[in-house]
Specification:
alpha/beta; Rossmann fold; 3 domains; 6-stranded mixed sheet; 5-stranded parallel sheet
Length: 317
């Protein structure tokens, strides 16, 4: 049985919109399932860094696991293929696949592919030289949101938390443009200038009260060192560095770090062996001064009925 195609496409559309808004998230897709299972082949869900789920990926046992693994994928920027099910149902796990035991009463199983989606950078080029035009055009060719703003028109309203600002005014208002951009605290701020010129610009702004922590975030000179290049080729050097930084995660919106929730502590469900969150969502039960957590009410009820069947001898007293 397959998921509803309309629901699946709706999730894809939401994912595209989130990427354009500069938000990082993970896209989870069911690629195989063994019934009975509430998740179906083709089912998709978006999982944000804060653990919010949009779409449908599975029931009470599968969803917490997918959320936890999706948050980890966002954090380490690596995709993963999960095999969820009972340990006795599978033989050897193929290389590259992560087996996570879940022991839901339905006894279903799923393979879920989790892909972290990097935010689409918002490139703001300040300047009007041929190099500035080339840099904006190269950004557009990569599918980035790319704007070209003359220094005389540049304001903090042109910058958001996901913006990658490159000041390429070539000495025509460098100080004003850097000061304006720094105040907006974009994800990245670079100045196309020599090191000596950059030190002069930053020194000028420091003398006029611009906080040092803002100025320390200004990268100058900007761009990879490609040797002796033409004016337009400087744009290639700048974009190459931006791509390198994006892959390394250095262009993530600053707000992402502020809104992302810390990863919850995890423990083992003593009944089924599943890894669960050590919080109120995992049906906590206190016994002998120790709090136990369970994947579902079935495991909790089994433990309540006969705790000694699941606890080591030294914990049964």
């Amino acid at each position: 049985m397959r998921g509803d195609p309309a629901d699946s496409w709706n999730v894809i559309e939401q994912a595209a919109e989130l990427a354009k808004q500069g938000e990082e998230f993970a896209l989870a897709t069911v690629v195989w399932r063994q019934g009975p299972s509430s998740g179906h082949q083709g089912s998709r869900a978006i999982v944000t860094a804060a653990g919010e789920v949009r779409g449908w990926i599975g029931g009470a046992c599968a969803e917490p696991v997918v959320i936890r693994e999706a948050q980890a994928a966002i954090r380490d920027r690596e995709p993963r293929l999960l095999l969820l099910g009972l340990p006795g149902h599978f033989g050897s796990v193929p290389d590259g696949m992560t087996f996570i035991p879940i022991a839901c009463q339905s006894e279903g199983a799923m393979e879920v592919y989790i892909e972290p989606v990097l935010a689409t950078p918002h490139l703001v080029v300040v300047g009007r030289s041929p190099m500035a035009h080339t840099l904006r055009d190269l950004g557009l060719a990569l599918g980035w949101r790319s704007d070209l703003v003359d220094a005389t028109d540049f304001t903090t309203e042109d910058v958001d938390a996901s913006a990658v600002v490159v000041v390429a005014t070539q000495g025509h208002g460098d100080e004003e443009a850097i000061g304006t951009a720094a105040a907006a605290q974009p994800a990245y701020l670079g100045l196309v200038a020599s090191r000596k010129r950059g030190e002069a610009v930053l020194g000028y702004l420091a003398d006029r009260g611009v906080p040092r922590e803002l100025l320390d975030r200004v990268r100058v000179p900007v761009g990879l060192d490609l040797g002796h290049t033409s004016h337009r080729e400087i744009a290639v050097a700048v974009l190459a560095e931006l791509v390198q930084l994006r892959v390394a995660g250095a262009l993530a919106p600053r707000r992402a770090a502020a809104t992302a929730l810390p990863m919850p502590a995890t423990v083992i469900d003593v009944v089924c062996g599943m890894t669960v969150n050590a919080d109120a969502s995992s049906h906590p039960l206190e016994r002998g001064g120790v709090t136990y957590y369970f994947c579902g009410v079935g495991c909790r009820a089994a433990f309540e009925k006969d705790p000694s069947a699941f606890l080591p001898k030294d914990a049964r007293c």
